Amino acid sequence: MPVFKIHHITRSEYDRPVIESANQIKIYPRERPDQETINHQIKISNDLVLHQYNDYWGNTTGLFTVSGQHQTLEIDSRLTIRTMAPPANLLVASKPSDWGLIKEQAMNDMALLDLTKPISLQSAAIIQEMVQELRPFWDAPALYIQRCSEYIFRIFEYKKGITTIESTVDEILEHKQGVCQNFAHVMLQMLRTIGIPVRYVSGYICPNSDGVRGAGATHAWVEIWLPSAGGWAGIDPTNNTWVSDRHVSLAVGRHFNDCSPVKGTFKGPANQSLFIYVSVGFENGSSCEDRNKVQLSVKDPLVSRTDFENAQQQQQ
C-alpha cells in the first residue's frame, strides 16, 4: 500500500487587472475503497473562502469567487494519500455471458445508459472499423476492453504539444498523436459505440519506474462498467495497463469537461498566462514533477467586459 505526496499548483497571471473571477475546482481525491486520504490541504490566494458540494457524478467540487481587482490567482493543493491494488482476477472473472448482463443493467439504470451514448463524429465509420477489427462479443468483455487498450497504445503516438483541450476525436483519429486525455476520449468512443457504459477519469499517475507516460502530471484514463468486477474497473490506454495502486482518482464523468481540475471565468480584456506544476513524492524520498505554461488571449482585446473561460490544464 504505497503512500504518495502530491503537490499541485495552478496559477493564473493576467497582463492587466481583471475582476469578478468565478472558479470551480475538482482536485479532491474520490472516496473509494482502494484509496485513503491521509491529509489534504487546499490554499487559494488571499485565503479565499472555498464552498464544496457533490456534483451529479459524485465528485467533490469546490467553488470560490474573487470580487475585487487582481492580476494573479493561485490554487495550491497538497495531498498525502495511500492507495491499494484492485483485485487481480478481473480477466479470469469476466465471461462472455457478461455482454448480456451489461446491456440489461445499462437499460435499467439511467446513469449507466447515459454513459453508453457515443458522440456524433465525422469519422464514425473509422471508429466502427476499429471496433469490428477487434471482434466485440467474440469473448469476454474484459478481454475485448484489453484489446482496445492495446490497439490505442500501438496505433497512436504519445506526443505532447500536438493537441489542446479542445482537440476533437476526429482530429485525434486523423493525426494519430496526442496525450492521455485524447486517448481516453478515443477509448470512450470505441466502447460506447458497442453499448458499453464507460466514463472518463481524471487523476494522477504515480510511477515506480521510468517510461510511464503522463508521470508527474495530471492524468486521465477510463472506467468500464463490468458486473464481473463488481462494478467499475479502470484501464489506462496511454500506458496499456489496468489501473493499479499507482493511479490516484480525482473525478469521473462523461468526458474531460465533467472532470476538469480547474476552470473558471473572469471579466476584463486581459491576456492570461496559465502555469501548472505537479510533483509526486514517493516513500523513498524520490519524486517526479511536471511544469507547463500556456499563454491565452481574449478573442477581442477591445471588448471592455469579457467573460473568458480558463483553458483548463490538458491532462498528459
Structure summary:
The chain is of the alpha+beta class and 316 residues long.
Oligomeric state of the chains present here: single chain
The end-to-end span amounts to 25 Å
CATH hierarchy, class of the largest domain:
Alpha Beta
Beta-strand content = 35-45%
Number of helices: 8
Number of domains: 2
Question: What's the main sheet like?
Answer: 9 strands, antiparallel
CATH architecture of the largest domain: Roll
H-E order:
EEEEEHHHHHEHEHEEEEEHEEEE
Radius of gyration, in angstroms, nearest whole number: 20 Å
CATH topology of the largest domain: the name is C8orf32 fold
**pLDDT < 50 stretches:** 299-311
**Record field, number of beta strands:** 16
Structural class: alpha+beta
Gross morphology: globular
Task: Describe, in plain words, how this protein is organized in 3D.
With 316 residues, the protein is α+β, with helices and mostly antiparallel strands. It folds into two domains: 3-83 and 260-309, Sandwich (Immunoglobulin-like); 90-258, C8orf32 fold, CATH 3.10.620. The protein is 22% helix and 39% strand. It contains eight helices and 16 strands. The protein has helices at residues 90-93, 98-107, 110-114, 124-133, 141-155, 169-175, 180-193, 256-259; strands spanning 3-25, 35-44, 51-54, 60-66, 70-83, 157-158, 177-178, 198-205, 218-226, 231-236, 241-242, 247-253, 262-267, 272-281, 287-296, 307-309. The strands form three sheets. Strands 1, 2, 3, 4, 5, 13, 14, 15 and 16 form a nine-stranded antiparallel sheet that branches. The chain has a five-stranded antiparallel sheet with strand order 11-10-9-8-12. Strands 6-7 form a two-stranded parallel sheet. A hairpin with a 4-residue loop joins strand 9 (218-226) and strand 10. Helix 4 (124-133) packs across helix 7 and helix 5 (141-155) packs across helix 7. The protein is globular, with a radius of gyration of 20 Å. The two termini are 25 Å apart. The relative contact order is 0.21.
